[in-house]
C-alpha cells in the first residue's frame, strides 16, 4: 500500500465503491433516490430543488380588528388599480423579452464547461534554473545553503514540511498537509513563525501553495528534475514526526525515475496514477511537502509518500519540473481545472451517478411507459455536487451516447468512461422522458469529468 506522510491524515484520497450487492445497478455515488418516476403518479407535491428550504406558520400574534367598510372599499380600489398596472407592466416586459414567456420554450442545452479562455499562458512566477551549479560533497555546507529556505507547516490537524519558492513569500507543500485546515502556521528553523494564507491547492497532484507576509525570504533554487540520473546523491530536509525534530536532514540516492505509482482510496479503488521519483532517502510522516535536494542545493522533488508495512527505503517525490506548472497555475487561479500537458498524474474519472439498464428499470416497475424508450444507461441517482448534474443531467434520464459513442447498456458506459481521465471535457446525449410517460426528447451537453478522489 502507499501512504502519504501526514501524522493525522493517512490517505491521499477517499471515496466509495460500487454496491456489489446490486449487480444490475452500477453505483458511483451514494445519494438519495427520488420518489417520483416518469409514468407514475405521486401523492406528494413537487419539492424545491434546493437541498434546504423553509416553511412558515403563524406565530400566534394578536390579529388586527377589521377596518371600517369605507376604508375597505378604498383599499380594494387601490389594489385593483395596482393589479391592473402590474399586469400591464408584466405583459410589456414579456413582449420586450425582459421576462421569459412561459408558453414559449426559450431554453437551450446546458453546459458545465466554463467559457473562460483557459489557453492563456500562465505567468511563470516560479521558474526552473537550468544552469549547471557547482555540486558539493560537504553535507554541512549543503545544509547551510538551503536551511533558510526550508520550513515546517503546522495546521490545526496535521504536521508537514515545505519550502520557500520565491522572495515574496510563496510556500509550497503537499495538499494533504493542509487539507481541511482552519489555521496554517509556517515556522522557519530559527523558530520564526508566520500565519499563512492558502493561495490554492490541488488534490489530484497533491500540491498546495501558501503565502506569508514579510520580507527577506530566501527562495530555494529550482532545479530540473528531467536531468536526474539513477544513483545521484540527494538529501531530504523536513520535520519528521514532531516539531521538535524540525530541520532533520537525511541522505540517500535516486533509486528510480518515472515510477508509476497507483494511489488508492480507503476502499482500495485506484483513484489516480502518479509518475514519481523513487528514492531510498528516509521519508517519514512529517516530511510531506518538504524538498528533495541535489548536491548543488537545488530542489528536484517534493517529498510526498512512501510504501509502508514490510517495505523500507521506498520513498517517492513529485518531480519539480512537472510541479512548477501546477504551482504557477495555483498562484494565478487558485485551482487547477484543466490538467497540463506535462501532468505527472493520471486521475481516474467519476460520473457520480447510479445507473441500470432500461430493461431492468422496466422489469422492476421503475418505469411505466406507453412507448418503447431507447436503450442506454438509465439514471436512478445523480449527485448534485457532480459536474454532470450541473451540466444538466437529471434522475431518470437515459444516457444514449457518450462522447460520440452509442451507449446501449451500463457496461458500455463504463467501458467508454474508462478511456478518459479526470479533467477531460466530454459530451453526452440523453433521452428525457416526459412526465406522463408518453414520450420524451433528446438533449446534449458537455462537462468536465470529475476525479474519482
Characteristic terms for this protein:
453 residues, elongated, seven-stranded antiparallel sheet, 2 domains, alpha+beta, Thrombin, subunit H, Pdz3 Domain
Structure, explained:
The chain folds into two domains: 2-7 and 122-346, Thrombin, subunit H, CATH 2.40.10.120; 348-451, Pdz3 Domain (Roll). Helices cover 16% and strands 31% of the residues. It is built from seven helices and 25 strands. It has helices at residues 69-96, 139-146, 175-178, 320-333, 358-363, 387-391, 410-417, and strands at 2-4, 25-27, 150-155, 159-164, 170-173, 184-188, 193-195, 197-202, 207-211, 221-222, 233-238, 248-264, 270-279, 291-294, 298-307, 315-319, 345-347, 349-350, 353-357, 377-382, 397-402, 405-406, 425-433, 440-448, 450-451. The strands form four sheets. Strands 2, 19, 20, 21, 22, 23 and 24 form a seven-stranded antiparallel β-sheet that branches. The protein has a seven-stranded antiparallel β-sheet with strand order 7-6-3-4-5-9-8. A six-stranded antiparallel beta barrel has the order 11-12-13-16-15-14. The longest helix is centred in the first third of the chain and has 28 residues, at 69-96. The two termini are 16 Å apart.
Amino acid at each position: 500500500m502507499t501512504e502519504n506522510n501526514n501524522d493525522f491524515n493517512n490517505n491521499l484520497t477517499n471515496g466509495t465503491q460500487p454496491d456489489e450487492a446490486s449487480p444490475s445497478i452500477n453505483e458511483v455515488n451514494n445519494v438519495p433516490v427520488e420518489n417520483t418516476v416518469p409514468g407514475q403518479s405521486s401523492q406528494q407535491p413537487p419539492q424545491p430543488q434546493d437541498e434546504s428550504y423553509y416553511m412558515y406558520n403563524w406565530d400566534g400574534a394578536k390579529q388586527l380588528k377589521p377596518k371600517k367598510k369605507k376604508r375597505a372599499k378604498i383599499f380594494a380600489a387601490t389594489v385593483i388599480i395596482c393589479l391592473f398596472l402590474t399586469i400591464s407592466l408584466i405583459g410589456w416586459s414579456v413582449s420586450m423579452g425582459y421576462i421569459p414567456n412561459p408558453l414559449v420554450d426559450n431554453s437551450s442545452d446546458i453546459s458545465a464547461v466554463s467559457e473562460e479562455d483557459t489557453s492563456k499562458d500562465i505567468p511563470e512566477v516560479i521558474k526552473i534554473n537550468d544552469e549547471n551549479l557547482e555540486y558539493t560533497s560537504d553535507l554541512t555546507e549543503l545544509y547551510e545553503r538551503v536551511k533558510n529556505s526550508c520550513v515546517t507547516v503546522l495546521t490545526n490537524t496535521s504536521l508537514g514540511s515545505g519550502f520557500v519558492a520565491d522572495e515574496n513569500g510563496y510556500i509550497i507543500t503537499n495538499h494533504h498537509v493542509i487539507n481541511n485546515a482552519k489555521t496554517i502556521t509556517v515556522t522557519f528553523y530559527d523558530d520564526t513563525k508566520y500565519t499563512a494564507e492558502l493561495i490554492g491547492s490541488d488534490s489530484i497532484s497533491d500540491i498546495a501553495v501558501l503565502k506569508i507576509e514579510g520580507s527577506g525570504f530566501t527562495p530555494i533554487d529550482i532545479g530540473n528534475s528531467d536531468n536526474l540520473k539513477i544513483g545521484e546523491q540527494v538529501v531530504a530536509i523536513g520535520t519528521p514526526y514532531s516539531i521538535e525534530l524540525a530541520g532533520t536532514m537525511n541522505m540517500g540516492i535516486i533509486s528510480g525515475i518515472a515510477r508509476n505509482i497507483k494511489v488508492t482510496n480507503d476502499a482500495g479503488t485506484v483513484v489516480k496514477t502518479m509518475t514519481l521519483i523513487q528514492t531510498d532517502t528516509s521519508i517519514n510522516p512529517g516530511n510531506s511537502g518538504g524538498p528533495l535536494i541535489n548536491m548543488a542545493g537545488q530542489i528536484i522533488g517534493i517529498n510526498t509518500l512512501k510504501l509502508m508495512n514490510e517495505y523500507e527505503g521506498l520513498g517517492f517525490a513529485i518531480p519539480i519540473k512537472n510541479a512548477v506548472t501546477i504551482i504557477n497555475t495555483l498562484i494565478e487561479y487558485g485551482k487547477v481545472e484543466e490538467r497540463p500537458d506535462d501532468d505527472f498524474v493520471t486521475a481516474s474519472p467519476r460520473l457520480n451517478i447510479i445507473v441500470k439498464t432500461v430493461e431492468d428499470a422496466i422489469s422492476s416497475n421503475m418505469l411505466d411507459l406507453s412507448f418503447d424508450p431507447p436503450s442506454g444507461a438509465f439514471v436512478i441517482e445523480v449527485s448534485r455536487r457532480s459536474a454532470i448534474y450541473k451540466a444538466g443531467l437529471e434522475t431518470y434520464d437515459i444516457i444514449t451516447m457518450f462522447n460520440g459513442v452509442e451507449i446501449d447498456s451500463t457496461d458500455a458506459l463504463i467501458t467508454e468512461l474508462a478511456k478518459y481521465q479526470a479533467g477531460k471535457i466530454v459530451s453526452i446525449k440523453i433521452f428525457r422522458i416526459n412526465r406522463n410517460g408518453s414520450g420524451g426528447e433528446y438533449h446534449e451537453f458537455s462537462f468536465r469529468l470529475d476525479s474519482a478522489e
